[in-house]
Amino acid sequence: MLQDQITQYTAEINSFDTTSAEELEQFRIRFLGTKGIIKDIFDEFKAVSPEEKRTLGKVLNEFKQLAEAKYQSLNESIADSGIKTEDSKLDMTLPGEGFEVGARHPLALVRREIIEIFNKLGFSVAEGPEIEDDWHNFSALNFPEEHPARDMQDTFFIQKGGEKGDIALRTHTSSVQVRMMEAGQPPFRALMPGRVYRNEAISARAHCFFHQVEGLYVDENVSFADLKQTLFYFVQELYGEGTKVRFRPSYFPFTEPSAEMDISCTICKGAGCQMCKYSGWVEILGCGMVDPNVLENCGIDSKKYSGFAFGMGIERIANLKFEIKDLRLFSENDVRFLKQYKTAII
């Protein structure tokens, strides 16, 4: 009779006790499995008379709840005790293995250090889109129509012509300077870090994408002397006191006058090596006074305001700081290379 079976199995459940996960699993399969005792009893329950169902229904539900509660209680007891089963190779009582501490990318380290140095001089950080139109990437910065930077050999164009003109991956973060000056009025004192793209052959000294930090300072009575002293302070902070600096006349469409700044090679200490091409000097950035045409293009009165701008490649700075001779290493994601900078985490 069904009532007698339930009474018999209830006594068996109440008397069952174990500290073995294997025995508990057998208990679960025997009573609670898809082909277990409780499933069979419920199947038999369907065939009993309506009068018996009213009596047995409550008893059967209590029987099922008893089996589930017993299994849950023993399962928690075994888990809390941490007892190792015969077939298990994992001892939960052993101390865990700690996660290996990661390392910041060397470019991220240098980028942050550059920003921190200029923060001391009051420079904030500004960012902009990596896909730019012709106006912000070229025209507003005084690039003539025939300038070679507009050629397909130097720029990754996404669209040629169209309603908004040429659309390209930005070739410098100077486009962020234009957006800043268009959106407000001086004074401006900001850094523009970010990734830029140029259609160049990949080698130890060049890549089709790299990272720049550009700076802009526009206010009344800003002079070239302000520019030189700002950059001299930056070099001493980044590479240490005693690092020599020199400025060479140069040309950029968006600055006049323009210069390139060299520092004494930090790898060979001026003696001559492959990095400095045996000259003892390494160029690290270009700079100059913002061309009045650029100020006027951005709606700024060039008769009242003046300013300076500079730009540097973060890879070049990192090359000298960490003595890395091949900039392709920065983008290869070789864990062996990146682990070297674990101690540089701040």
Automatic annotation (TrEMBL):
Xref: SUPFAM superfamilies: Class II aaRS and biotin synthetases, tRNA-binding arm
InterPro entries, alphabetized: aa-tRNA-synth_II, aa-tRNA-synth_II/BPL/LPL, Phe-tRNA-synth_IIc_asu, Phe-tRNA_ligase_II_N, Phe_tRNA_ligase_alpha1_bac, Phenylalanyl-tRNA_Synthase, tRNA-bd_arm
Superkingdom classification of source: Bacteria
Cell compartment(s), UniProt: Cytoplasm
PANTHER family reported for this sequence: PHENYLALANINE--TRNA LIGASE, MITOCHONDRIAL, PHENYLALANYL-TRNA SYNTHETASE
Primary location recorded for the protein, binned into one broad class: cytoplasm
Any single GO BP term: phenylalanyl-tRNA aminoacylation
Cofactor comment: Binds 2 magnesium ions per tetramer.
This enzyme's EC code(s): 6.1.1.20
Alphabetical UniProt keywords: Aminoacyl-tRNA synthetase, ATP-binding, Cytoplasm, Ligase, Magnesium, Metal-binding, Nucleotide-binding, Protein biosynthesis
One Pfam family from the record: tRNA-synt_2d
Record flagged with keyword NAD: no
Cofactor names: Mg(2+)
Any GO molecular function: tRNA binding
Enzyme class: ligase
Coiled coil regions, renumbered to chain: none
List of residues binding Mg(2+): 256
Domain Aminoacyl-transfer RNA synthetases class-II family profile span(s) in chain numbering: 110-340
Gene name of the encoded protein: pheS
Gene source species: Pedobacter planticolens
Similarity section: Belongs to the class-II aminoacyl-tRNA synthetase family. Phe-tRNA synthetase alpha subunit type 1 subfamily.
Name of protein: Phenylalanine--tRNA ligase alpha subunit
Assembly and oligomerization: Tetramer of two alpha and two beta subunits.
